Amino acid sequence: MDIQTVAWWKAIVESMNDGVLVIDRAGIVRTINPEYTNITGVTPDIIGKPLVAYRPGAQLPKTLIDGESRVGVYRKARGREYVVDMAPIIVDGEIIGAVSVCKSLNEVHTLTQELAKQQETVAELKKQMRSIYKVKYTFEDIISQDSKMRDLISIAKKTALTNLPILITGESGTGKELFAQSIHHTSLRTNEPFIAVNCSAIPVTSIENELFGYAEGAFVGALQGGKSGLFEMADGGTLFLDEIGDLSMDVQAKILRVLQEGSIRRIGEVVERKINVRIVAATHRDLRQMIAKDLFRSELFYRLNVVSIQIPSLRERKLDIPLIINSVTPQSYTVDEEVMNFLTSYDWPGNVRELRNVIDFAVCMTEEKRISIQHLPDFMRKHHTLYADETRIIPLHEAVDEAEKKILQHALQYVGATVQERLKLANELGISLATLYNKMKKYQLN
Ligand SMILES: Nc1ncnc2c1ncn2[C@@H]1O[C@H](COP(=O)(O)OP(=O)(O)OP(=O)(O)O)[C@@H](O)[C@H]1O
């Protein structure tokens, strides 16, 4: 080696952040760098002397004999702690020396402390995430004295403790999410996240990104570092897939795959990520009918419908109406008997949600802490005049409108939003598709 090359290698070794000591084939120390002195306290006067004479416990000379590398050897000398990696230096198949590279344990301690700090931050963030995704409702919040509802609550409580998928069906506002939250609360996953996804509210173009996440650069506008999806966020907890009947066949197939494999693949990524998620799905649609029309995958239905909870509409459990009214009305308020009777006989297309809204509104309107018919929303007062007072003569067109609205409201609950389904409904109703859309607009039905 010429002088320039030797100077070059010396400069490299001296600039290293790890301590370096090199011995030749005879076990004589040929070089050490300043960091070696920093870490071990051994000064450069060792150079040119046999290592074992200076450091009797040194293992580096063994490397000369067996040619084996030694990694992470712990050493403590002169009150200093460090770890050493040792390797033979081989040229043309012959061991011509050995090198020892050491790292101070102070640095390792600092890194360990830094790691522990980061782990604490991750644990704290996880805790915060759990509190964000904590459920609000429990089974105690489900108000009902209906025997069918009591049976459903009992089934839900029992199955909550398992990992079985649950499918909750029922009209809008019947309490599907209330059941889903209560199930999570009672389950062993209660301290893990409850993630609710309204499948009908997420645009078709982003539903897959939201559910499965994506890798960096998966598409234009993808976040740096990629993004985890809702399945990943719910890991360890419960994923509530609300309005599952509104998902395209394509997305249904992908969800089915996730459930079968127990793992997800972010969009644009090839690695599979294991997930442990309990699925509770809900819909107001008749999935069996959708299967018959090739709008829902039967394999997914059977996978989700392991436990089936079919919540009856409020009009099918009228006894619950006064109970719910009383629970929503503040204690110091009274409700006129006329109001109670009228609300109990009403059909409640929006179920418990609509009933709660009507009472909240009436409580706001009354000034004497007494709810009478006049405090109900306009559309209900109209309905009351139409139906409650049978002796009163009302314009026929108002009665016809009201009846028409009720029929449409009811029918629309059971059909999807596609043109084909609406056309089929229009045919069943004996009107054209255009007339159906006009009437939906007139009565503000979606
Ligand atoms: N049996 C019940 N007792 C008390 N409150 C109820 C009951 N059922 C529903 N509610 C209340 O009614 C509202 C609507 O309930 P929830 O959101 O669970 O209905 P949903 O069936 O999931 O509706 P959607 O299909 O429109 O999403 C909530 O405020 C919920 O607390």
Automatic annotation (TrEMBL):
<dbReference type="InterPro" id="IPR027417">
    <property type="entry name" value="P-loop_NTPase"/>
</dbReference>
<keyword id="KW-0238">DNA-binding</keyword>
<dbReference type="Pfam" id="PF00158">
    <property type="entry name" value="Sigma54_activat"/>
</dbReference>
<dbReference type="InterPro" id="IPR025943">
    <property type="entry name" value="Sigma_54_int_dom_ATP-bd_2"/>
</dbReference>
<dbReference type="InterPro" id="IPR025944">
    <property type="entry name" value="Sigma_54_int_dom_CS"/>
</dbReference>
<dbReference type="Pfam" id="PF25601">
    <property type="entry name" value="AAA_lid_14"/>
</dbReference>
<dbReference type="Pfam" id="PF00989">
    <property type="entry name" value="PAS"/>
</dbReference>
<dbReference type="InterPro" id="IPR009057">
    <property type="entry name" value="Homeodomain-like_sf"/>
</dbReference>
<dbReference type="InterPro" id="IPR003593">
    <property type="entry name" value="AAA+_ATPase"/>
</dbReference>
<dbReference type="InterPro" id="IPR058031">
    <property type="entry name" value="AAA_lid_NorR"/>
</dbReference>
<keyword id="KW-0547">Nucleotide-binding</keyword>
<feature type="domain" description="PAS">
    <location>
        <begin position="5"/>
        <end position="45"/>
    </location>
</feature>
<keyword id="KW-0804">Transcription</keyword>
<feature type="domain" description="Sigma-54 factor interaction">
    <location>
        <begin position="142"/>
        <end position="364"/>
    </location>
</feature>
<dbReference type="InterPro" id="IPR002197">
    <property type="entry name" value="HTH_Fis"/>
</dbReference>
<dbReference type="InterPro" id="IPR013767">
    <property type="entry name" value="PAS_fold"/>
</dbReference>
<protein>
    <submittedName>
        <fullName>Sigma-54 interaction domain-containing protein</fullName>
    </submittedName>
</protein>
<keyword id="KW-0067">ATP-binding</keyword>
<dbReference type="InterPro" id="IPR002078">
    <property type="entry name" value="Sigma_54_int"/>
</dbReference>
<dbReference type="InterPro" id="IPR025662">
    <property type="entry name" value="Sigma_54_int_dom_ATP-bd_1"/>
</dbReference>
<keyword id="KW-0805">Transcription regulation</keyword>
<dbReference type="Pfam" id="PF02954">
    <property type="entry name" value="HTH_8"/>
</dbReference>
<dbReference type="InterPro" id="IPR000014">
    <property type="entry name" value="PAS"/>
</dbReference>
<dbReference type="InterPro" id="IPR035965">
    <property type="entry name" value="PAS-like_dom_sf"/>
</dbReference>
